Amino acid sequence: MTIGSMFGDVFRSLFKKPVTERYPFQRPRIPERLRAKVVWNPENCSGCQLCVKDCPANALELIVVDKASKRFVMRYHADRCIYCAQCIESCRFKCLGFSTEEWELASANKTPFEVLYGRNEDIQFLLERAAQACSEQPDECREVK
């Protein structure tokens, strides 16, 4: 690059408006078909687990609380998800979709990346059962650091 062409670029940019976005203070317009956090509607789910089987990243787990009364809990690992939408395409009952509101998924630790979807009483039941299993066998429940 010659100095003359560089001065031309410098002088042209002096008279242009900056293109910097004020992101944290002004949220940008979200594209219509943005692939963001996966959300699950437990009311429509039949427990067929096609979404779990078709997920190439193993980001979904469907935990069966009671199959007869259609009580399930979905564990979604956002840190594993590659946002390919294969789970959404394979769901026959349209239980899965992308969120248009939760697309800012940065965090300093892994805790917020594991999301439990389902009825509150089902989630509470699973958490209590996991805590009970940890109290009986504490060696298996230690976190790897």
TrEMBL record:
InterPro entries: 4Fe4S_Fe-S-bd (IPR017896), 4Fe4S_Fe_S_CS (IPR017900), NADH_quinone_OxRdtase_chainI (IPR010226). It comes from the Bacteria. Residues 36-65, 72-101 form the 4Fe-4S ferredoxin-type domain. Keywords: 4Fe-4S, Iron, Iron-sulfur, Metal-binding. PANTHER family: NADH DEHYDROGENASE UBIQUINONE IRON-SULFUR PROTEIN 8, MITOCHONDRIAL. This is 4Fe-4S dicluster domain-containing protein.
